Amino acid sequence: DAKTTQPPSMDCAEGRAANLPCNHSTISGNEYVYWYRQIHSQGPQYIIHGLKNNETNEMASLIITEDRKSSTLILPHATLRDTAVYYCIVRAPLNFGNEKLTFGTGTRLTIIP
Amino acid sequence: DVKVTQSSRYLVKRTGEKVFLECVQDMDHENMFWYRQDPGLGLRLIYFSYDVKMKEKGDIPEGYSVSREKKERFSLILESASTNQTSMYLCASSLSQHNEKLFFGSGTQLSVL
């Protein structure tokens, strides 16, 4: 699986959009970009994933650059409950015997009141 | 919602003890995973299973074994606990080979004294 690079920490004002970047310059053509977050003392929670098109769901939007070497997770109106560590992961579709999903150290996002 | 339940939130064991960490999921998921999480190291995959009685080594299997006798239950076993196995242990499940969205439990904080 391709390696990802994320800033270790970011702050965002409550009510503003939080934009979390992720670099994945070695991503392969069949690898998806996944985002998870981990709120303190809880297990990670799935947010969104995509291959090449931008994606949006009730939690966030995912913007993937045309060359797919980087992506941005957008939380449109950040609240204090969005304070968490955000993980960007890239991986190929599950193949038999290749179901590893590797998490890095993520970005610690702090929402400021 | 999918529920992944880990039997203990906190556990304290002595060096050399045999330790069982239990995980149960209630949504008939095929795949189950065990990770450990340590500060500065992110989540690291220990073992995973894609079917009953099947198991595959992850990135750090040494000192651990697993058991999956029933589809809903995946156990992590520390044959002889050591202090360097003090960690947060996270169990996760996913629906099938073609659906990689992981659902995590709340974690077990294991301290080995």
Can you walk through the features of this model?
The complex is a heterodimer of chains A (113) and B (113). Chain A contains no helices and nine strands. Chain A has strands at residues 9-13, 18-23, 32-38, 45-50, 55-56, 61-64, 70-75, 84-91, 107-112. In chain A, the strands form two sheets. A five-stranded mixed β-sheet of chain A has the order 1-9-8-3-4, with no helix packed on it. In chain A, strands 2-7-6-5 form a four-stranded antiparallel β-sheet, with no helix packed on it. Chain A is globular and about 40 Å long. The model of chain A has no long low-confidence stretch (mean pLDDT 89). Chain B has no helices and eleven strands. In chain B, strands 2, 4, 5, 6, 9, 10 and 11 form a seven-stranded mixed β-sheet that branches. A four-stranded antiparallel β-sheet of chain B has the order 1-3-8-7, with no helix packed on it.
The helix/strand order of chain A is EEEEEEEEE
Chain pair sharing the greatest interface: A-B, 25 and 30 residues
Q: Which of globular, elongated, flat, extended, rod-shaped describes the shape of chain B?
A: globular
How many β-strands of chain B, per DSSP? 11
Share of helical residues of chain A = under 10%
Classify the secondary structure makeup of chain A into a structural class.
mainly beta
**Number of helices in the DSSP assignment of chain A:** 0
Structural class estimated from helices and strands of chain B: mainly beta
Shape verdict of chain A = globular
Share of β-strand residues of chain A: 35-45%
Largest sheet features of chain A:
5 strands, mixed
- Report on the biggest sheet of chain B: 7 strands, mixed
Distance between the termini of chain B: 36 Å
Oligomer: heterodimer
By DSSP (H or I, 4+ residues per run), the number of helices of chain B equals: 0
Give the percentage of residues in beta strands of chain B: over 45%
Work out the number of β strands of chain A.
Answer: 9
Would you tell me the overall average pLDDT of chain B?
92
Overall pLDDT of chain A, averaged? Answer: 89
